[in-house]
Write a structure and sequence with these properties.
Mean pLDDT: 90
Radius of gyration: 16 Å
CATH topology: Rossmann fold
Order of helices and strands: EHEEHEHEHEEHHEHEH
Helix content: 25-40%
Distance between the termini: 20 Å
Number of domains: 1
Strand order of the largest sheet: 3-2-1-4-5-6-9
Low-confidence stretches: none
Structural class: alpha/beta
Number of helices: 8
Length: 214
Amino acid sequence: MKVVVFGGSGMVGQGALRECLLDPAVTEVVTVGRSPLAVTSPKLRHVVHVDFGNLTPIADELANADACFYCMGVTSAGLSEAEYTPVTHDYALEAARVVGGTYVYVSGEGADADSKTMWARVKGRTENELLALDRPAFVVRPGFIQPRHGITSRTRIYRYLYSWSSWLVPVLARLAPKFVTSTEQLGRAMVALAKGAQPATRVLRSDEINRLAA
């Protein structure tokens, strides 16, 4: 099984990439990014590309994929909707246009196309457009994500928050299971979807992600 991963250097992308490399059913992983990753594996290939709004030049390298994991994302802090939309929406739709197979889009808890909150509205609109495509497509909406196995966020404020709140994770997992998952569980759930899992819903919150990962 061939999996294409966008955003493999981010926290979620690192988790998805790790689980792909660990799963024997995944025989080939292609990451797409502006620079190569430090991770190496016999079944891993990095494709360096700058213009994510046009993937046609690298389409041949992404061909015959069984699944596409779109893990790219930026914080909405300080960005206008016009600045936030390309990575969150435009590039995600371009990836869906070029890469075949099961498509898994990493969204976030609270995404809603009718929301008054900018990031939630953009993500919600993207979800709706992807789910309307004539192909297997799923949305994962993690809430609080616990980094595992040395994985860290590239965003400094997120690194600080995860470090400061790590002791709260077991409490949150008991009190609010619908809002807590980990990079490991999220990655496993995404691989399960690529392998043909059919959950009851195509929009998975943290508790559903965790059940699928198990």
